[in-house]
């Protein structure tokens, strides 16, 4: 006798319908998330009615959201969240408060009761964490300025849902609900978050260490899923959302050395359940209700998208971001979130929504969510279009600030775009060797802090021609792009090549896939992080086995040469230069800074007798920003001189040892 498993049948139907639609959207280069939502509309109870147990599908969808937020948490850390506190608290708080007040005022002026007006404000204040973050991850924009701004605001929205849910009974006039009870519940929820983080940081590393020692992949995966779903369940018991608990669990595990393995193991589960989530969103849309109130729903969608985008743009701009970044963040958050559906369901029995309003709200929300991937894709073009309307120094677009450029005729300098880890390290080295440089950074707080410490840093958007002209890009020698914004990087490379055809452009990229496009746009060198990380890994492995330094260096140079040549020009014919290659194969260069206590200070190059003792030739000496090419043997060395050495790796090692011993 066959078993009656309605959920299994519904799940098979859902997957069967999803695959061809997702395949079609992928081939058409359309967001697959939209394809999944359309699948839900077609097979849902308001479409063909093929799914019988919608509630069970919604449960699976909620697991998908939990796993999505868990893996997103793995990309963050508690330290990174603390660094984002200004955007989370000030940005998110301002966005939620202003949107709520604005919608409340409009609804009240439209004739709605005051309690219903506030509830409408709550509904429209939230954005879709799942859709926005999924789109940002797919486009590698989570670490871009607009991505960080969006994530910060979304985190505050997810926290604010707790207070909103607690206020629903008060707005509905239910007895027993009081401000004191709300305050106590909210306080216990925040205390629960602190306790969970503290316990997880103390207990989880200990448990993970012992589980990994067992070398059981099955047990490791079970523990990871337990951490994700278990933390989500615990936070839900304190009135918080399941997704927020999963995000906290991910953040805790992100500080573990096993975080990359966790991501690899959880991704298949996340993608399957997350697809179910998007399908379940589509199932909520009633096509008949949409058709009945089509004009009103479209008016709601238009007002929601434009109004919410305007609020987010204003908030992000006031926090010091450029108009382009603010616009891109605003476009990304201009929709209603999945947690608004939970809030709407809670308000329906309280009389805060009529059945007709509920259906209109669902229709408008789902349409805005379907439009979100398309809006995020178009966000860069929208951002540049809005930016072009306002000149620097206008009300909305900030003027260039930071370091006071006292050298208007500065030439031959390095322009560093981005003051993250790579930008800071490069600036530090250039300052030590007296190479002139300027830094462009979009984070106003970073600019203010670094400028107070004497850094040559300027606030400005490198995608603007006026800003690049201000820092003298036409006269610069090198441009280094060290930002995590793929769209802005490509735009800046193209613009810089137009403004200064002779400038040497070096780009830091996260992925190898971006290399060819950047080279075609005009970059001279592209350094993909994933490729360089692989080189660092094998060099450390060889070092652990005692392989000589010069042999490791030869392997590194060989891999770099083969890897980059293959990616840059796979179709170019090979030129036979075996004689030159043989002559230069063992040669390399190295720079050496002479310390004040070095025995070389006060001696001439001839006194050192480097060439006769080690085989190394000093081909240049940099002093006070001036370079002496092929210096004579009579040149007296001084402290802080930078010597450029030429020789084989073994010869250079001997020369460095000689200097250290002197």
Write the layout of secondary structure elements.
Blueprint: H1 6-27, H2 32-43, H3 54-74, H4 78-83, H5 85-109, H6 114-125, H7 129-138, H8 145-172, H9 179-213, H10 217-237, H11 242-254, H12 259-283, H13 287-292, H14 294-318, H15 323-332, H16 338-347, H17 355-389, E1 401-402, E2 414-417, H18 421-432, E3 437-441, H19 444-452, E4 457-459, H20 465-470, E5 478-481, H21 486-499, E6 504-509, H22 515-521, E7 525-528, H23 529-544, H24 549-568, H25 578-584, E8 588-593, H26 605-608, H27 610-614, E9 617-623, E10 626-629, E11 642-647, H28 649-661
Parallel strand pairs: 2-3, 2-5, 3-4, 5-6, 6-7
Antiparallel strand pairs: 1-4, 8-11, 9-10, 9-11
Helix pairs in contact: 1-2, 2-12, 2-17, 3-7, 3-11, 3-12, 5-6, 5-8, 5-14, 6-8, 6-16, 7-8, 7-17, 8-9, 8-15, 8-16, 9-10, 9-11, 10-11, 14-15, 14-17, 15-17, 23-24
Polypeptide structure, described:
The protein has 662 residues and is α/β, with parallel strands linked by helices. It has 3 domains: 6-386, Na+/H+ antiporter like fold, CATH 1.20.1530; 401-528, NAD(P)-binding Rossmann-like Domain (Rossmann fold), CATH 3.40.50.720; 587-662, Regulator of K+ conductance, C-terminal domain (Alpha-Beta Plaits, 2-Layer Sandwich). The chain contains 28 helices and 11 strands. The chain has helices at 6-27, 32-43, 54-74, 78-83, 85-109, 114-125, 129-138, 145-172, 179-213, 217-237, 242-254, 259-283, 287-292, 294-318, 323-332, 338-347, 355-389, 421-432, 444-452, 465-470, 486-499, 515-521, 529-544, 549-568, 578-584, 605-608, 610-614, 649-661, and strands at 401-402, 414-417, 437-441, 457-459, 478-481, 504-509, 525-528, 588-593, 617-623, 626-629, 642-647. A 7-stranded mixed β-sheet has the order 1-4-3-2-5-6-7, sandwiched between helices. The chain has a 4-stranded antiparallel β-sheet with strand order 8-11-9-10. Helix 2 (32-43) crosses helix 12 (259-283) and helix 9 packs across helix 11. The radius of gyration is 29 Å and the shape is elongated. Mean pLDDT is 78; it is low at 566-585.
